[in-house]
Amino acid sequence: VIPKRNPIVYDFSCMQSSDDLGEEAIINLGHDIEDVIVGSSGVEVSIEEEERAGDQVYESQKSKIVHNEKSENLERMLQKLVAQIKKPKGYHYSIYFLESNDLNAWTCGGKIFVTSKIYDFCESNDEMACILGHEINHNELGHIKKKLQKWKLMGDLNSLYSMFTIPFGQKDEAHCDLTGIDLVFAAGYDACVNVELWKRMKKAFNEGDFDPVNNLFRSHPYSSSRSECSKHHIRYNYDVNCD
Q1: 2 near 167, Cβ under 8 Å?
Q2: CB under 8 Å to 194, separation ≥6 — which residues?
Q3: Is 0.85 topped by the overall pTM?
Q4: Nearest CA to 115 among 198, 125, 107?
């Protein structure tokens, strides 16, 4: 699917619920202030440093790594998606399939970790591609770099593993959803599945309905918001109605 808009527009207004009491503006302001503080700190992090951090995360997880048909499928999918990055930063991407009951995928320094639980939760390669596209863009959009910059500023308060399994913030997560969709379409997968995927995620995480107070303390957007943002992004930029 070829986007009808050039450049592609990333609109985050879809994250705001009709029940919003102004907390979305507070969340976005906090995100922007943090970016300014980290960006002006003078702390530098190279891609090589990011990849070394990824090596440490790998060492903490390698006992769970399984090599089978699923891991081979993930590798093929990763290569197709990475080939579509328009201006790659230079990461050496790799992917690891972990035997784990956690419904999760995460990344650090170009290394992507996918649990067996989330792999089996996905009903197609298209859905899995949406997850992988999201993780790739945490690297390409500088979210890993920002985490390591904060780590340098704050000191060694957490292990690297915990740092890269904790969330990146609502706006960063939404941005990765949308740029991930772009990669998925470019690689020949169907990104419309992301709409239903997040509806199922809502049930899997027992999220319940949108709560404006709770939203202030969430680091990920509500899954229902992520579903709507996906649908809006695809309709606006690709002229495709996922309904």
Answers
A1: no
A2: 127, 130, 177, 180, 181, 184, 226, 227, 230
A3: yes
A4: 107
pLDDT in tens, 197-223: 999 999 999 987 765 546 545 557 889
**What is the dihedral sign for C-alpha 195, 200, 202, 205?**
negative
Question: What residue type is 1 in one-letter code?
Answer: V
> What six digits make up the tokens of 111?
């290394």
Strands 111-115 and 94-98: parallel
Closest CA to 84 of 26, 10, 6, 140: 140
Indicate the residue type of 210: F
φ, ψ (nearest 5 deg) of residue 2: -95, 130
Strands laid side by side in the 111-115 sheet: 94-98, 111-115, 105-108
- Where in the chain does DSSP place strands (E)? 94-98, 105-108, 111-115
Contact criterion met (CB below 8 Å) for 92 and 105 = no
Residue type, 184: V
